[in-house]
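Researcher: Predict the fold of Small-conductance mechanosensitive channel.
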Amino acid sequence: MNDFGLKDALSSLSSQSVFEALLLVAVAVALIMAIQAFLPRLAGQLGGKPRLYLLASVPLLRLLIIVATVLLVVPVLIEPSFENMFAVFAALALALGFAFKDYANSLIAGIVTLYEMPYRPGDWIEVGGHYGEVRRIGTRAAEIVTADDTVVVIPHGVLWNALIANANKGSDNLMTVAEFHLRPGHDVAAMQALLRDVAFTSPLVRIWQPIKVVVAQRPYGFCYRVKAYPLAPADQFALISDLTARGSEALGEAGATFVEVPPVAA
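Model: Structure tokens for Small-conductance mechanosensitive channel follow.
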């Protein structure tokens, strides 16, 4: 493409068309800001799947508004002929390709993320050793908030080759695991039953979901893993703390002896 095609495409520009285009962009920005402010607040007042659905709709609505704005602005600025449209979009793609290569990579990955939805707002994911709740999905990156209230920004481009662990996958069912390591020489069945009772009596557990106590024999002794579901994904750490505290107390009263886990066996 030569410069003539681009100049010809922009020859129809006028102050009125520029003003109309800016007005459309301003309306789109206002809509996006309103959606990003209102829907998360509304979702915060809800629970369960409605909350997750509302949070997941925010990035999708933002993308639709951006696409609609581009489709409305371009015909306002230039005469909507095939030659003009091709010239403008080709020049724009060429400029963005050189100037924002990494950004464009993350942008395309963000669009793929919105389509495949490997994670969405409200999901608890682990990427690159960082585990937290997805609070926002932008066009370039996703933001997760860890248990220590640290915001981690993950560019979508990183996710092309990264492993993503999703703990609840768009639902409010999230399994937690509390571990106990005991020395040999005890009644395994009795310890399993005791830990199961501890889990069932927790005020933070979903008693209508499966509660399992899995035991495995290790070189240092026995490893008990209590698997249960919290009332809400945000309660997962409180549930693990409750199971650990009350489970350790119950095991100690039952005469069980804890063992230190060697680093290679952890």
